[in-house]
Batch of 3 targets.
Target 1
Amino acid sequence: MKTSLIVSLVLAMPATALAQNYSRPAPPPPPPVNPAPAPVYDAPAYDVPVYEVDTSSYQPEVVEYYDDFNNSEVGSYDSQAPDQDYVWVDAQVLQDGSETPGFYRLRARAGFAWVDAHYDNNNQWVNAGWHPTRQRRGQVWESGYRGSDGFWIDGQWRDLNRQGERWVDAGSAGGLGYWQPVQVQADQEWVPGFWAEGDIWIDGFWRPKQKAGFRWTAGAWQYGIWNPGHWTPVETRSNETWCPGHLEGNSWTEGQWRPQSKPGFAWIEGHYSNRGRWVQGHWERARANAPARRFQVIRVGDIARSRQDARRIWRENQIIRNNAAGLRMELRGRRIDTRSRVIHRQAEQLQRQGEAIEARAQVKGSLRGEIQGRRIQRKAERLERASQREKRSEQREERSRARERRIRNHR
């Protein structure tokens, strides 16, 4: 019995040893004769060029383009301007080198939003002006424009159609346009209507071409307000001033002479109210404690010259700032390009290292070596994709620099 048991154990030992040999992990491959150095990803694979640019000359003392300034250093006030809150809009230089002159506009207008002149996304010039916040059914918006005296003429809503009349656009001559009857009357001249205070439309009328002892004075814009045309006598009178006539209803009310002055009184010019009714000119007793003006308006010529000088100084310093910004953006682009090349070189090194490891493993029949080589190659591929991302980032930076240059050229 003992003999058979010993023989069984002796016969089973080789099988057990053989099973144990198959269950053990494979021994590690022998080290290569000249092992490749492990890659270091935080250090560049070659010397990185250093770009040194002296930007000290591009950082002078900057004089900012100001909005508030000392009025006493600009010019004199315009005492005839309406006592309203005006804002000065500076001149604009277009791409073709032409310049749109500056002007005054009201600071706020109920129901409208002010839009400054600019180039849109299609590089088309958009004129400044008041834009209505709401549309009106059955009406058309007529855009405003700069008056010849340097004050903005507000745009207005008009009817889409009027019976017996047609709308005449102002065109290149400027203006808001007007309604004109389709039928013409002999020996008569049409006096176009206009918008009075409160955006009220005053209808036009027919007048005779000639009037004995008088000459016709055409209407004109002043301070953004329309002064209607009127008959002016040919004769002149000393110490007297002519008060123009006006249209009231469908009839013309003749003008009259008045004294140039009246002690203790002030003359109030006739005008249309915000309801379209004529307010007759009259004398009002002057008050010793009359309230002072709420707003002062500098003369257009004076503020235009002052702002032109300020704009010139601002543009000179803006050019210097833009040049410095361009240099900074160029240096950033170079750094991105350098980083892309570094990553690309690292990827190439990893690729070669992975291929070498995989080749040695195939020669020696090592599965683990092949897996390690493929892993290093995949890491190299990831680095290559990172390099491509860096290149795309550099291309975006270049497009951004080109866009900035176009914007700076348009300012």
Target 2
Amino acid sequence: MFRKFVLIAVSIFMLAAAVDAQVLKTTVLSAGLSGNNRYPGIGENDRGERLAIWRWSNNGMAYSWYRDGKWTKPARIPNQVRTEGDYLGSDIVADSTGRFHAVWELMDRDCYYASFKDGAWTKVATIPVPGKYEGFQIGLDIRSNDELVLTWTGKPTRIMKDCFLGFKNKNETNFKRFMNVTDDKESSSSSMLAVDEADNIWLTWKGEEFGGEEILLSCVIKLDKDNHIIKSSFKQLSGEQAGWSFLQWIANNKKGKTMAIWWKNPGYYARLHDDATDKWSTIHTLPIKTDRKPDFSMWSKVVAHNDDFWVLMKDGKYIPWLIKYDGVKGEWGSARQLTYDAVFYYDIYPGYDNILIAWCTRKDPSQVEFATVPVPPMIRVKSVGGVVPQTGVERSFFRSYPFNKLSWQPNSFNVENNINVTYYNVYRRVQGSGDFPETPIMSRIPVATTTYSDLTIDPQLTYEYYVTCIALINDKEVESPITE
């Protein structure tokens, strides 16, 4: 009997130790701020800096900046348009220069944009969305040329809701171009987006009515890099399930795979799209369960890191869990409990060598906490960039030949991070002709060579050049993107 008691006690101890090993160590980012701190957003740039923002009681939005291994003291974002009201969703991305871009929403009123770099915020701007801003979910992503893409729910008419996209080029101070993606007689809301490696947009949302009948379905559609809707890509992701589904999220791994997730009583579900087959997988049931909450807080989020996808969700007791989908093996891992404490809202971001997670506790005064989950470093290769040519003339006995000579230096990011660059590709376009072509004018220049002479030019035209890098990573060649 005593031996049986000891075995049971040891088993309980080992189980508790296993859970303790999974629970994350956290940093309280909102320490020192009075009142409730809620609805965090989190992001990281290529420098390894991190930015967190959140709603600070009725003081508007607060932030903390991580650099040199530590977080700054939390402070209020300056120059805010309005501080009181029901702030909810926010999102953060970082561009190729390391600048953070942040958006956040004031429910049923407005949404706002500001950027942050080297400790300084730009002036907060109200995004001039068409119609009435509805809210409850706002999403931001970025294209390879640093163009920002925004999605939100609005009311172009008095009753029906629609899901919109907004665009901001890197030299613009605010979003200026908008499109209504779900513009029809039905109602749609709670959109989220992901940009893939070809700069296409994947948009998911909750379809609220179909054929005049209120049916809540998770839907998805794809837009090409020129923002044309690909109608054949439309799919009702949860169409095979009976009943309502909503609170959907989406991510793309920049390698031809897109994952969409959603909640439907009593749990969470996922589907994976493979560009190689242009098909969606069957619906996968995730292991965490939760009933419908009065505050609709059954949020789940998904991000992609290298080949893999990471899904963040919470159970019926508001405890957050994390689960990984191995993109190479095509297998789901085990769910991991992240904390013992109940949380209300959270955000997740794929950092260089960590999955970043921020959440706000449910107990008043609520606090914003931050934690990381280590992962293999993200595959990143940076281009040399635009190269200005030197024009010359090669003379022979009978005639002269104009040429453009290029010279460049290795990208310091690749050098400092020991990226194994093996070749360079040179792309050329006529000034003002649009994007660089997909095929380089000269490919696979050995890495020891940092010059190239273009002998096929028309002296009446002005040319622009861009040099990308090809690196060998995990026995696979990876080419850096063209970012302008």
Target 3
Amino acid sequence: MRSGVLIHAVPETSDPIEYLCTDGFKGDRKWSWSKLRFIDTRPLADTLLNDLLAIFERDSEVEILGVLDDVPY
């Protein structure tokens, strides 16, 4: 199973441009053909979110404005 980090520039912002960072998961479950069953992806998405937050919190040039449960994109 593959996923990744998606980074969107928020259209209504400029100087500085705000960015929205999301994981690439489309829901809490994904069909696995190799296992012939659905896989619960929520634990993977939660781990990715926690890792991204830790990376951004360590970077003094990044300001975290908030964490959303639902992404508008």
